[in-house]
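Thread: quick sanity check before group meeting

JM: Hey all, I'm pulling together slides for Thursday and realized we never actually wrote out the predicted structure for the chain we discussed last week. Dropping the sequence here so it's in one place. If anyone has concerns about the input, flag it before I start.
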Amino acid sequence: GNENSKVENNVKTGVQEVNVVDRIILPSEKGEKVEKYVLATRTLVRNEGKVVAAVGQVRFSKETVDLASKFQLVDEELQFYKEELKRITNENYSFKSIVGSSSTLKDVVEVARKAAKSDFHILITGETGTGKEVFAQVIHYHSKRWSKPFIKVNCAAIPADLLESELFGYEEGAFTGSRKGGKKGKFELANGGTIFLDEIGDMPTAMQAKILRVLQEQEIEKLGSEKTIPISVRVIAATNQNLYEEVKKKNFRDDLYYRLNVIPLHLPPLRNRIEDIPILAQYFLDELNQRYGSNVTMRDTEKGLLQKHSWPGNIRELRNTVERMYCLSDDADMMSTQIPGVRVAPIKEDRKRTLTRPLSAHLEEIERQIILDTLEEEDYNIRKSAQRLSVHRGTLYNRIEKLQIPIRRSR
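JM (edit): ok, ran it. Output follows.
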């Protein structure tokens, strides 16, 4: 009787139900009522487009019970993996990974903690190498979006004519050379999560207008498509430029600036938190010792020398310097000669050997250190480094090769 009433309800509503889990009450052999769960299918019968009847089918089977048990196991496993993922992300992207004890850093971290609890857009400013991406990742993994994607886009690294397709994707055949089946853009990939727009100050003005529309409408439109796709994305933008000044110069849209700058986060340069330099240096050294199973130590005198450098490359430059000191360390001691601005090791027993070297060797050592420092400060950009040193790029390449300076590609 109960099933008949449900079939009649399907006729009235016109809703078809396939393999719906239902609860029914049946009498047992002993006469008492027993509650069971079954799979019910109620298929509609139409005549000239109108629903005129419905047929109901109820399946009692051992497979139904087994299937329910399997679903329960899958759900338990899913919950376990979610908790494990959260544990791992909390270890790798916790606020503890932001190293330092200075008051200026603590103030920024406190703002970041509060920002992580909200869903507002964030604008992170600061010089190159101050850790803008680290802060963005930590905020994401401490937000309610932590289990969804964190997608990074370097706006300065993508050519202007490709930026729109990278951000919003495209349909198949949208342009010559487009991928078969089309492509999802970064915003669609970040749906439900966070998109990190690094170096947003270098974004072309035309693209700024499209980003503004996405933030206002919470939807995107692929190239070659007339359909809009609703999205839910939190934007964390970052720049080493003074965007407020760029707005006044008409290089950056004021409406986009105010839309992004809901929560401003300015990261201080390393020279303004010199008390954190020894802590950071030791942190990087501990990482290296753990990675390579070594026990290299850094003396207080070397930590003091590190505090005397201005660190134009900030934390990134400090990490590179510690890695170089570690690589060229003698046994278990770091080498002061690898600290920027230090040309001769302050170790008495080495002084006599140093004075017996020819003048050309001294000059090459000094030249090598100057070139290496400049490369690090310019993030290994050869063009900028050559300009700083007032030499041609070809000349700089020749000196790098002759002096056997380790080189890597700029980021």
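AS: nice. The radius of gyration is 31 Å. The longest strand covers residues 33-47.
JM: adding both to the slides.
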